[in-house]
Amino acid sequence: MALTLSEMKKKAELIFITTPAIGHLAPVLEFAQQLINLHHHLSITVLCMKFPNTPSPSDSYARTVLASQPQIQLIDLPEVEPPSQEQQKSPEYYVFTYVESLVPHVKDTIQNIVSSNPNPVVGLVLDFFCVPMIDVGNELGIPSYLYFISNVGCLSLMLSLQKRTIEDVFNKSDPEFLVPGFSNLFPSNVLPNACLNKDGGYVAFYKIAQRFRDTKGIIVNTFSDLEHDIIDALSDDHTPPIYAIGPLINLKGHPNPNLDQAKHDLIMKWLDEQPESSVVFLCFGSWGSFGPSQTREIALGLQRSGVTFLWALRSSPTTDNEEKTLPEGFLEWMELEGRGMICGWAPQVEVLAHKAIGGFVSHCGWNSILESLWFGVPTLTWPIYAEHQLIAFMMVKEWGLAVELRLDYRRTSALVMAEEIEQGLKNLMDKDSEVRKKVQEMKEKAKKAVLSGGSSFISVRQLIDDMI
Ligand code: UDP
Fold first, then answer.
1. Where are the beta strands (DSSP E) in 269-395?
2. What's the rounded Cα separation, in Å, for the pair 348 and 353?
3. Quick one: which of 28, 159, 347, 430 has the fewest CB in 10 Å?
4. Would you say the CB of residue 194 lies under 6 angstroms from ligand 1?
5. How much of the chain exceeds pLDDT 70, in percent?
6. Using CA atoms in the order 208, 214, 220, 224, what is the torsion angle rounded to 10 degrees?
7. Amino acid 256: pLDDT
8. Quick count: other Cβ atoms within 10 Å of Cβ 433?
């Protein structure tokens, strides 16, 4: 679907509303930039909220990213009273309640933008937690779009929860259920973390999902070749159109105070010296960390497996020094034998793109998974928090695109022992595995999706067309 010349010249304004967590803000800003690059007469205002008494490192992130983008402006929403003690039942419930209390402020801010802007405001693009703002859009006659930061599988699961009572979901005699578009029954033990918190997280997710169908469209960073079965299953009269616009990957990587140029260069130089596809990269997202005992088991597993590794090691906040948690002599052994490198924050995108990388032990965050598929690196699944168990399940059981270490691991789980890690690493690095072959095929499909004429290329243009 090509935009006509007159459509390309139409000036229009979009308002994005997002929570400040980096995992939400970064993909939303990435998408805003993609839209601006595709449609030069579009301008975007991002309304960013701040949580009370919480420093916001994403502030500086957003300003760095947007410094070179005059068509995107950032407005900070005022900080309001935090939810009452009673409403602090879970982090998700807290955020949802806080966002609800911002509705009048958002309304004022949007009214100001509308009255001072010569261009029509054609849509609100809302982060997952910001669905209460649909009401503001409805009052002001502006349609809302959801920018869903996970995949369509997670979207389908959340919509399916609407048809089940909480008792159904938590009923131990009914541990598996059907989710539209999935070929396997969905096991309750891979539900997102929030859903396991009966009174807080589950209720928040239920209320959020209730609003999805009140939007004019749902934008997802995914691609049709990967999720067509689920997209098809959700293509009905009740569900707004799903725009699969990805993989949208930030190839410049995420700036981080714990990675300076010198550290970055050291990592890349070390990778340059390694043979092709020989290194396993271990990285567990922006929040992933383990306690001392689990860290020791990982170190022992690496030692026993015989693989070379790059390990983004960040231990839990209660441990003051990551390296203190390693078994005695491990660092000396690693350096003497030239068997690995340990870093804190890794330049993940550049690392996955490097030819020395042959496997990725991942917490299965959606961005990490898209990045691994983009560069054709097979994954060993070690989910930890958020909806990572669901993604691990999809990667292993639905798509055969990852090697299973664990699907249902959580922070409260028992230790994964060194022997199991050793075996997982060996399976991951198997040169002839079916998973490796499939990942290569999916890499090609991912690249095709965003090229001229590809499914995501068409979808994002269709979205702009529908918006303006
Ligand atoms: N990331 C990185 N270096 C690290 C850890 C993470 O660059 O040491 C990046 C990674 O490339 C990805 C993002 O941070 O783009 C993490 O997003 P994801 O959805 O995978 O997981 P989350 O951190 O949101 O759980």
1. 279-283, 308-312, 340-343, 357-362, 379-381
2. 8
3. 430
4. no
5. 93
6. 130
7. 81
8. 15
Q: Looking at ligand 1, which residue's alpha carbon is closest to its atom 11?
A: 348
Residue 52 CB burial class (10 angstroms; 0-12, 13-18, ≥19): exposed
Q: How far is the CA of 288 from the centre of ligand 1 (A)?
A: 9
**Nearest atom (ligand 1) to Cα of 343:** 8
CB atoms within 10 A of CB 132: 20
332, HSE (Cβ side, Cα atoms, 13 Å): 3
Contacts of residue 273, Cβ cutoff 8 Å, sequence gap at least 6: none
* CA-wise closest residue to 90 among 385, 384, 364: 385
Q: State pLDDT tens for residues 3-49.
A: 565 655 679 999 999 998 888 888 899 999 999 999 989 999 999 88
Q: Which atom of ligand 1 is nearest to the CA of 365?
A: 20
Q: Is the CB of 170 under 6 A from ligand 1?
A: no
pTM for this model (two decimals): 0.95
DSSP string, 89-125: SSHHHHHHHHHHHTHHHHHHHHHHHHHH-SS-EEEEE
From atom 3 of ligand 1, which residue's Cα is the shortest distance away?
Answer: 346
Q: How confident is the model at residue 406, as a pLDDT?
A: 98
For ligand 1, say whether the CB of 16 is within 6 Å of any of its atoms. Answer: no
Q: State pLDDT tens for residues 207-236.
A: 999 999 999 999 999 999 999 999 999 999
